[in-house]
Design a protein that fits this description.
With 306 residues, the protein is of the alpha/beta class. It contains eight helices and ten strands.
């Protein structure tokens, strides 16, 4: 049915189940700057589950977005956004899941495109960063999260959502932002390793807060956004909500300044548990995904060939 377009010849409209609900012939893989990868995994949550439903909720909500972005003054979709069908996770082991995500991400970056992962829980980031670190040896991760996720082990596993940043540090450097919840173990680890963890709320202006983040990052980065970095007043639909978080304008400001200064070669947006909050949360997540695509495609410096 790809040759058919909604509204033509009285045959539509259709529900395409793609980002922005774009007809497939208008969002071909070969023309895409961004490739949306949906990873509906939810296996190590410890409070409220349901993140496996996050990717599909974001895709559905994205159909209500306006293509034109007022802030940037552009139609972001012109950068090209292709949506890959939702992955069926291999649940035999965490290694198997990470391998799936690694292979998907490797294919996308090999084709010169930017992977945009939709989780699922935060563990899906590990497979993506593994792939990108092979391609970009000097990469680092900007990790936007209410929590440190720096436990070496939690609830009997080293591969759970509370240990993601710790595992990513075994692949490449990680810079935290938005953190406002830590265990005593994590606090000691941060001090012992002299980690750059930018706590929230800041003791400085937003520009100074963003500059501290930017100064700690290399030229090439991966951006990982746990939606609980946002305040529960605007993002209740997460597994581990934490009060006193970033508001939309705070997070957007940081992301804009980062994208003006660094080369973002991939990103993820994870931990939406749609049943735990109003439908507006899925829309906010979709808007944030699209906004970040806009910052990357219009503001990002070109720091060498892909």
């Amino acid at each position: 049915m790809h040759e058919l377009r909604g509204g033509q010849s009285g045959l539509g409209p259709f529900q395409w189940d793609t980002f922005l609900d774009t007809p497939p012939d208008e969002a071909r893989y070969e023309d895409a700057g961004f490739v949306v990868l949906s990873i509906p995994f939810d296996g190590t949550t410890s409070f409220r589950s349901g993140t496996r439903d996050g990717p599909s909720a974001i895709i559905a909500a994205s159909g209500q977005l306006e293509d034109y972005d007022i802030e940037l003054g552009v139609d972001i979709s012109l950068a090209g956004i292709h949506t890959v069908p939702e992955l069926v996770p291999n649940l035999s082991s965490m290694d198997a899941l990470f391998g799936q995500v690694d292979r998907l991400t490797t294919q996308v970056i090999s084709d010169g495109k930017i992977p945009a992962l939709l989780g699922g829980e935060h563990t899906v980031s590990i497979g993506a960063v593994t792939a990108l670190a092979r391609r970009y040896p000097d990469i680092a991760v900007l990790y936007l999260d209410a929590h440190g996720d720096l436990r070496d082990e939690y609830m009997g596993t080293r591969w759970g959502h509370a240990s993601v940043a710790r595992r990513l540090m075994e692949i490449c450097p990680v810079t935290h932002a938005g953190v406002r919840s830590l265990s005593a173990e994590e606090h000691r680890f941060i001090a012992d390793e002299s980690l750059n963890v930018n706590l929230w709320p800041p003791n400085s202006s937003m520009d100074e807060y963003a500059r501290a983040i930017i100064d700690d990052l290399p030229s090439t980065i991966y951006v990982s956004i746990d939606l609980d970095v946002l305040d529960p007043s605007i993002m209740a639909a997460v597994g581990t909500p934490e009060p006193d978080g970033m508001l939309w304008q705070d997070l957007a400001h940081v992301l804009r300044l980062v994208c003006e200064a660094k080369r973002v070669v991939g990103f993820d947006l994870v931990e939406l548990a749609p049943a735990e909050g109003p439908e507006a949360c899925a829309y906010t997540a979709a808007k944030l995904t699209y906004k970040l695509m806009g910052y990357i495609s219009t503001l990002m410096p070109r720091l060498g060939a892909c």
